[in-house]
Write a structure and sequence with these properties.
Elements lengths: L2 E8 L5 H21 L5 E5 L4 H17 L4 H5 L3 H22 L2 E8 L2 E3 L13 E7 L6 H9 L7 E11 L6 H4 L2 H10 L6 H11 L13 E3 L3 H12 L1
Parallel strand pairs: 1-2, 1-3
Antiparallel strand pairs: 3-6, 4-7, 5-6
Helix pairs in contact: 5-8
Amino acid sequence: MKKPSIVYCMCSYLNKDIQNMFINTVIRDYKKFFKDLNIAADFKIITNIPETISEQLDDIHHYYVKKGITEKYSTWLEEEQNKHKLKAWNTKFYIIEDFFKSNYKSMLYLDCDLLLKDHQKNINFDSNILSFNTRTNLHKKTLPCIYTEKYIPTININTHIQAGCFFINRKKCFDIDQILNMKNIVSLWEKDSYFLREEIALTYLFYKNNLINKIQRPTLRYRHIGSWSAKMKYLEDDKT
């Protein structure tokens, strides 16, 4: 029998004190938010980068060195802080695989730096939808749009997928378990190092597989806390 729902949160920092501050403030508020709305969902907090993600990024790093590839994100693999950021971004694909291996009917993913807006009553984990937030810019293309258009030049692309919050229900997932698996992601890394940015990979794969018009925006309303300094202020203020 399928279990109802699970909420995944990615909260992995090299500085474990900061990591714990996020867990004890933002993620604490996530749990309270769903409890107050009487929404039953298990929580799974990812605090350690899965070993397979670390190994795959080490392998692609060696691949780039061998090929002499020195682009923006390939050079991030040389520095610990940026490499950890790439690991965290791409752990989202691991999380999607984890969900499809589980017995849950639906999943919600949340970054650990969002503020959920109060007084929401339309959150429904039984919704048969695939939901990602998107960003459309008609005047200046973002990197996800630029690199998707590079490999799909026949389409004018001005909308990109954002990965800070998304919802998947098995009943209407458009086979993304087959599309967003790590085998396909690693193949994209080999195609272009810019696909190490998970939103670039997502945008490309959603367009390539004709899914861009099938996703819906999340019913969950939220806002990003902001820059790193804004995050630190928010965490410190919560302690006072």
